[in-house]
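Re: export button greyed out
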Amino acid sequence: MLDPSQIIVPLLNYSGQSLIENEEIFLEPHQLEHFSVEFSRSGFSRIIRELRKGSFDDLDWHRLAQLADQLSLTHGFSELLCVNHLAQHWQQVGMIPYPHQIKTAERVLKEMRGQAILADEVGLGKTIEAGIVLKEYLIRGLVKRVLILTPASLCWQWYQELAEKFQIYAGIQKSEWDWEHAEVLIASIDTAKLDPHASIIKNIPYDMVIIDEAHKLKNSKTKAWQLVNSLQKKYCLMLTATPIQNDLKELYNLITLLKPGQLGSYRSFKQKFMQDLRTPKNPGQLRKLLSEVLIRNRRGEGTVQFTKRHVYPIIVELAAPERALYDRITRLIKASSKSAFFQGNILPLITLQREVCSSFYAAGLTLQKIYEKYNLNPDAEILSLMNEAVNVRQNSKCDIIENLVSKIQDRVIIFTEYKASQEYIRWRLEKANYRTFAFDGSLSRNRKQWARYLFQKEGGILVSTESGGEGLNFQFCNHVINYDLPWNPMRLEQRIGRVHRLGQTKDVHIYNLVTKDTIEEYIMFLLHEKINMFEMVLGELDAILMHLKWDKSFETQLMHIFLKNQSKEDVHRELNRLGDEILKTRQEISRQQWDLF
Amino acid sequence: MAAAIPELVFKFFQLCNLKPVEIRKGIYQVQIDDHLAKELDGWRAKARLFQFTFDQRLAQTYGAELISPGSYRLDTIVRLIQKQAVLSSGHLPHDVFYEPFIRRKILDRLKIQHPASRLYVLDHCLRYGPYFWVTLRITYLAYEKHEEIRKLLVDLVSGKVVNYEIPADMLKPGFCSPDLQYRRRISFKQAYQFLQQEIIHELKYRDPSWAITAVQELAKEHEKLEEYFRDLPDSGQRNLRIAELMARARPRVQIRPLRAALLYLPKIEYRIMVAGTTEKINRITYDPVSNQYEHD
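Workaround output, generated via the alternate export path:
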């Protein structure tokens, strides 16, 4: 693992010289019958410079260097050099590449010649596969200049993975200057697609371009697609777990971006392979063409068996004062949703309803904000609720957490959505003599790294908010407590994904605190009982939700159900309908993917 | 080549004035200073006690760094060594060769040409010829990459490229006495041109099957691209994609001079009297390295 104290900044080649100026120059090539012959001018100039200086090295060094020259030769892709090269480092950082990852890298190098879509199911280590391919090309000197385009939130994770696992010290793009001065550069695709960045990078000849979350390039009319299409790239890797999301045209766009002509022109593709947008024709032939550029590994034999997830819903009974306050706030929310204040914008109410299930401190702060924003009169009920929220001295969830933590006796991550709840939990646990670490969006990258490092090294309890959890992995911990439940299942999956991923060697225990007779119970019903999301594989839900194309967010859908339906039965019925829709989409996606790959 | 690794590593430390100590059978230890640590592992590295082994089993058991084919540590050492000795100088002293034996050999050969004459050496003179000894990496590139090392000598007097092995271990560092040197008649630039001609000539007669296969595969890919762009008006994109394909797959041989040495190799000039019906003095310059001689 990287020692965070050693991390200064992602390094760029800050010599001040553009990399283009350092490139090797060859003399005019001689054309023979089947190939051309190119002599290096740079290499010879280097020798001439030494001659002019009259600086002659020791002959012993010369002889040794000749031996070193022999040892540095490469011969085809008969074996992966990086496996030996990194063997000891991998041993130190505890990384063992899986056989399917090595096999995939070999296929990309030998058969696909550096142009491939890595479409493994989520969690099988596409980044590792891309890292192996990249390292191999770097070691062999076939690649020098690399651009990695990812969603902004993943830039840092890419930096870390490359540094920690492959000893590739990339730069993270910050300014226009960086494009021309880094050999391996990680950049946000959303930044890269905009001018002036786009026009700079279009002129740079990249040896290799890697695109993460490549399913976002499904539409050829988007700026991102057009940017990638305009890049000069000798080798290209695209990473996605869902190469088909909606229709075959998207698949065509993706493959064509990687290797134009692989599926012919769109007209011929439609004729040969499309019955309609969603149904392929000649699947056998299409599968063959896809297999030339796309690799998809699935979970199971020959790949990876993940450790088990054990999910424990823990029902929390609110104490009488808590219950009374919860009911009052809920009544206020229902009443307010119909009032003129919140017409068209129920976001503050959603927040409040979620917070009230988390902690009254968090809810109290939001009540105060609402009170100030809408300039309510001093005798408004909100004000009395605010005071009551601050004065409730009991917190049943925290009582349970203290009890739970004492039983676990190991590293634990507690997730909450709210900073106020995070501070309260930490205060309670510290009071009970537990060592805690705060982990949230307000921390800088280095501080997050430091907190993670201490947590790994010294153990204790990490209390994290959602935003803090993104981008960092904690496979060394296998106990997760969800202090409150996010309404968006994706966020819940992201939380669990921080610990339950490749590299986790133990079964993962997930404790979900669910307050009885509150909205949390409904959410638990939907996620756990209805769609069984805890059994889903990491990332599957993401694909489903993207496929659904709802016009409202998941949270808003839920809030509408709660506000519109008064009785428990009605809410259940509506949640059932929502769950059915998700399950149906899940089946559809898995059918599409399995048919073709 | 694996057998050469320990030799390379120990020689490397020796040239760095370091002496690894075998602290346990097969495990060596050496104190490396700040400077060398930084050269090997980047600017963050510091002086340390470096333990290494050539045995994978020992590396796992004792946690010493493994130096084996392809290992990270071997790569760092190799790269560091390769940065050294871009240009060196040396000479091969005459005493490597036994002059009376050479004299006998030359006379025997001349006897065949002049069977009726008496031959005797009037005098001889020991000289040195300047040579440009260049180590080249030849890279065969298509979808894959194969490399080889060639070491060629260019005679800086005649411009001839000779490609025989010189006894590198017998070379002595530095130059010989200037009085004994032949004057260089061609420039280093010309020498590089002669090398190029020689290599092109060699490549013409090499087995081209690797390139033929690559050309065939390239043609297939090219055809696919052309078919795709046939109906599309954007010729800029077409050119870009074709350029990428060429960069990836076009068969080519790249030749990089890695290092060179200015060598002075021995020559022996003989004045030999050929006495028969007439008397004639033959001037012969003998090159003991290539075992060839030239008449003036």
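Chain B has two domains: 4-84, 88-296. The button fix ships in the next patch.
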